[in-house]
Amino acid sequence: MKKQIENQLENIITEGVIKYDEPMSAHTTFRIGGKADCYIEPSFQEVEPLFAFLKQEQIPYTLIGNGSNLLVSDEGIEGVTVSFGTSIAEVSCEGTTLKAQAGILLSRLASFAAEHSLKGLEFASGIPGTLGGAITMNAGAYGGEMKDVVTYVTLLEDGEIKRCPASEMDFSYRHSKVLESDIIVLAVEMDLQEGNQKEILALSRELNQRRVDKQPLNYPSAGSTFKRPEGHFAGKLIEDAGLKGYTVGGAQVSEKHSGFVINIGGATAKDVRDLISDVKRIVKEKFDVTLEPEVRMIGRF
User: Fold this and answer.
1) Closest to 77 (Cα-Cα) out of 138, 34, 42
2) Disulfide-capable partner of 275 in 201, 248, 256, 268 (CB 3.0 to 4.6 Å)?
3) Cα 270 from Cα 245, distance rounded (Å)
4) Beta-bridge mates of residue 183
């Protein structure tokens, strides 16, 4: 990046972190990805001026959370990569209302709710992403989704901070209006229910154990690779197509759960992309069902 722009960024980011040529393999659960030209972890106060500057200078940017649903190109990411992490992760509750910033991990959010005997987020306790990413994708598991508990979302939209009711977020299966527009999730308000703390913790443990039993958590991955096709289960289609254990380079269709593509060692983004392409083609040929990746692919593909 030009030195002048670097200097301006460093005038904005005084509390947060700026790194140049940062390997994105260190910031994704796939452990895959080339270098980001510029990687920034801003404080909450720095978010608004940072994005105003990026827009003014027409600098391309990519916003990420915990990197748990991402495949980053081997060629890296141009422009500025902004990560919402521990510096944007405050959480509080008042009665049954939970308020949290976008960078908080869902596991921490669910634990906080349990500490205050609030139920409704048990489904999220084992999801490895951040709250901002969960809102963007309307994350869900075991019959629960974010749209079930969200009441308001604070957004940075067109340079302005807006408080948007859940009814205007266009939530649907693995979708919200954030996916299709230049909108940034800053914070979220949720309405939970009073519950019995022991029962809340017991349900969370049960759901997490089901994940351990069924999912290949001992290998790097981006979670469930494909969206659920209507009337089908992606993992079953892939297994029935004879693709369990199918391997391209260091990428493999998990032998434990065919809905997961895992990094068995040294996988590149190209390995994963090629494997996904093969799986889509073969499933389409065998069952006439089109699989759509749930994993977000970013960078210089």
Assistant:
1) 34
2) 248
3) 18
4) 157
The answer to whether 257 and 233 have CB atoms below 8 angstroms apart is no
Lowest mean pLDDT among 48-52, 180-184, 238-242, 256-260: 180-184
Q: Which residues are catalytic?
A: 174, 224, 294
Closest CA to 24 of 11, 33, 13, 15: 33
* CATH architecture for segment(s) 89-199: 2-Layer Sandwich (3.30)
SS3 101: strand
| Region for 84 from its dihedrals, namely left if φ exceeds 0, alpha if ψ lies in -120 to 50, beta otherwise | beta
| pLDDT recorded at residue 159 | 86
**Burial (CB count within 10 angstroms: exposed 0-12, middle 13-18, buried 19+), residue 5:** middle
**Residue 146 and residue 138 in contact, taking contact as beta carbons nearer than 8 Å:** yes
What pLDDT, in 10s, does the model give residues 162-182?
999 999 999 999 899 998 788
| 1 — pLDDT class (breaks 50, 70, 90) | low
From the candidate CATH numbers 2.60.40.420, 3.40.30.10, 3.30.43.10, 3.40.309.10, the one assigned to the domain spanning 3-86:
3.30.43.10
Cα–Cα distance between 153 and 30 in angstroms, integer? Answer: 28
119 secondary structure, DSSP code: E
